[in-house]
Design goal:
It is built from 5 helices and 4 strands, in the order ααααββαββ. The chain is mainly alpha-helical.
């Protein structure tokens, strides 16, 4: 199945200003609420992936990016994002300024055949992995939020900024999935002010 054109945008700017597409505002998410919000997001994803046959349907193509993922494909991606970020958080909390291995989400979508996966299994695995992330965040001590790590392109993160960056990603894709459902049903684009997981609609990962 043809994939969307690769995303080459660096999304780290969402840590410093609101995302106009999904409405996410990092300043409105205190670090001590991140674990609870991750759990809430995972529950929202399980509900999305339990909507029946529509979760495997792709919305109309985007004029700029071409094919658009189905909710199932977004869900499989989010599951893998949680897994990758769980590993990165562990590295940051146990090693000094680690450099992360590159992860190519577009290649992962092809290799793992996201579009052919079972939605219920994806939802289960997503919730399981998100739970591990939430558990890890709940154990972060006050003096550990500033620990650092680097993406393979040299982009630096603290534990707090990585966790917030992760949360935007999974919220943004929930917004994408909901917008896809509306497009399939013949509606317009989602309004960023719609509530998605308690947040105003909320490149390399």
């Amino acid at each position: 199945m043809e994939q969307p054109r690769p995303e080459d945008k660096d999304w780290t700017w969402v840590l410093d200003r609101p995302c106009p597409q999904c409405g996410f505002d990092a300043a409105a998410v205190p670090r001590d609420q991140l674990a609870a919000k991750v759990r809430s997001n995972a529950a929202a994803w399980r509900a999305v992936l339990n909507r029946g046959a529509v979760v495997s349907m792709r919305p109309p193509e985007d004029p700029e990016r071409g094919p658009v993922w189905s909710a199932l494909e977004y869900g499989a991606h989010v599951r893998d994002v949680y897994q990758v970020m769980a590993e990165r958080l562990k590295l940051m909390l146990t090693k000094n300024d680690p450099r992360f291995l590159n992860w190519d989400p577009d290649a992962a979508a092809v290799e793992k055949r996201y579009s052919e996966q079972d939605p219920h299994r994806v939802g289960y695995d997503l919730a399981l992995t998100a739970g591990k992330v939430a558990d890890a965040l709940e154990r972060v001590r006050d003096n550990q939020w500033g620990r650092t790590g680097q993406r393979s392109d040299g982009q630096p993160f603290t534990v707090e900024r990585l966790a917030t960056y992760l949360y935007h990603d999974v919220v943004h894709h929930l917004h994408d999935a909901e917008a896809g459902f509306k497009a399939i049903a013949g509606g317009g684009d989602d309004d960023p002010d719609d509530e998605v997981d308690g947040q105003g609609a909320d490149g390399e990962s």
